[in-house]
Amino acid sequence: MKNAPLKAAVLISGTGSNLKALIDAIGRGQLNLDIVQVVSNRPEAAGLGHARAAAIPFSVIDHTDYPDRQAHDAAVADVLQRAGAELVVLAGYMRILGEEFANKFAGRMINLHPSLLPLYKGLDTYDRALDAGDTETGASIHFVTAGLDSGPVITQIRIPILQGDDAATLKARLGPLEHELLVATVRLFCERKIHCTDSVVSFDGKEIEQPLQLKPGGSF
Ligand code: GRF
């Protein structure tokens, strides 16, 4: 019997191209996912337009309206819980999450990060890879824990760094691949194939020692 669609909430702060990639994959019948809620911490986030166009409930929970991180986190958690989100996807959500929030959604919250984690947590990942003279870069999807970009890594995609590359060319080349990585990874969650217990990630019931690498064509 086919699984019921997985109920997900997507958190954004900006353009929301990854949210759009998920919406489009659902539209093409490639993802057994129901996006039950979109949340942005920024009222001007262009990505809200994608939620509106797809008739997905969305909330702006502006962090500047709250006295501290804990109060903002609590407001976001409340909306996600009311929406019945089983999976929380941070897709360009530019807020550090407090420990309480991370614990509440432990094992069911993932983040997309533009580096080959554990390398380059935080910002300016392309410049840091270039400055280090790396020959490849990529993107990672990891379970979210209280530490910044620190939770167990689930999947990755890699690209070579070419002569003459700068942060803009890397971002342009990696962007579409990040979308593929996110869709393919969320699909594994929809198929209930990924689990995380005590920081150990399992795929199809077996512990993974290295992040799953996305191959051309979209399989791991
Ligand atoms: C992506 O590059 C992702 O790696 C990073 O933020 C960006 C979000 O882009 N976490 P978008 O808002 O989904 O277009």
What's the SSE blueprint?
Layout lengths: L5 E7 L4 H11 L5 E8 L7 H6 L4 E3 L8 H15 L3 E4 L8 H6 L4 E5 L11 H7 L4 E8 L9 E8 L6 H24 L3 E4 L2 E4 L2 E2 L4 E2 L7
Parallel strand pairs: 1-2, 1-4, 2-3, 4-5, 7-11
Antiparallel strand pairs: 5-6, 6-7, 8-9, 9-10
The protein binds 5-O-phosphono-beta-D-ribofuranosylamine (GRF).
5-O-phosphono-beta-D-ribofuranosylamine binds next to α1 and β5.
Written account of the structure:
The model has no long low-confidence stretch (mean pLDDT 97). The protein has 6 helices and 11 strands. It is globular, with a radius of gyration of 17 Å. It folds into 2 domains: 1-105, Formyl transferase, N-terminal domain (Rossmann fold, 3-Layer(aba) Sandwich); 113-140 and 157-220, Rossmann fold (3-Layer(aba) Sandwich), CATH 3.40.50.170. It has an 8-stranded mixed sheet, with helices on both faces. Helices cover 31% and strands 25% of the residues. With 220 residues, the chain is of the alpha/beta class. The structure holds 5-O-phosphono-beta-D-ribofuranosylamine. 5-O-phosphono-beta-D-ribofuranosylamine (GRF) binds next to helix 1 and strand 5.
Summary keywords:
alpha/beta; Rossmann fold; 2 domains; three-stranded antiparallel beta sheet; binds 5-O-phosphono-beta-D-ribofuranosylamine
Mean pLDDT: 97
Q: Indicate the CATH topology of the largest domain.
A: Rossmann fold
What separation lies between the terminal Cα atoms?
24 Å
Order of helices and strands: EHEHEHEHEHEEHEEEE
